[in-house]
Amino acid sequence: MNGPEIHVAFAPELRLFVPHERRSGVTTVGTDGASTLGHVVESLGVPLPEVGALVVNGRATPVSYIPTAGDSVEVRPVERPQQVPGAPLRFLLDVHLGTLARRLRLLGVDAAYESTDLGDPALAALSAAEKRVLLSRDRGLLRRRELWAGAYIYSTRPDDQLRDVLDRFAPGLAPWTRCTACNGVLRKATKEQVADQLEGGTQRSYDVFAQCGECGRAYWKGAHHDRLEAIVERALTEFGA
Prior knowledge:
Blueprint: E1 5-10, E2 26-30, H1 37-43, E3 51-56, E4 59-60, E5 72-77, E6 91-93, H2 98-106, E7 111-113, H3 120-130, E8 133-136, E9 149-152, H4 158-169, E10 186-188, E11 209-212, E12 218-220, H5 226-239
Parallel strand pairs: 1-5, 6-7, 6-8, 8-9
Antiparallel strand pairs: 1-2, 3-4, 3-5, 10-11, 11-12
């Protein structure tokens, strides 16, 4: 770009997205005099869903602003907890985040997920059609214009991923109310209704039963591994109302 030069400073939380030489302090960026500030920021590597505010010469400025020579720009991260207006808070996860999807469902959070790769255009379109926040580690996917809302998942560790989503969006938690397999809503069931799915052996003293209204999978008290119970307990302790 050979147009006006501007001076950009990225918040520490966003510096992992930009080239190493632009990560510390203020960096000088050449623009073309026609592209929006949002386009300039994304061209430097930062997906707009990760940008909370653009402050130009001390004033909050929309992404549609056309930079002029000498502008001083601060690129700030999203504020937490992040508000997502326009629809109930629901998520869509890409194919690489299956464990995170199951853990969100375990906590009663609406988390759609497909185990097959739908492709970036289809995922972005589904996010828009169902008004779901797309969670992904794919920076290119989060730059697609048809995307309704999105968020970058910073860690590769499921424990950290879950903590980050709960901290960022503060969804309401209702453990054991969604099917961890299909995201359907669980409903109360009798022992007779789920008898064919009960564990074998002598442990038949279960007294609390539920069944998914979508796929029919059964759940019952005592059926869940201690590790899952620990995930629920930690989430409620740290993020429960």
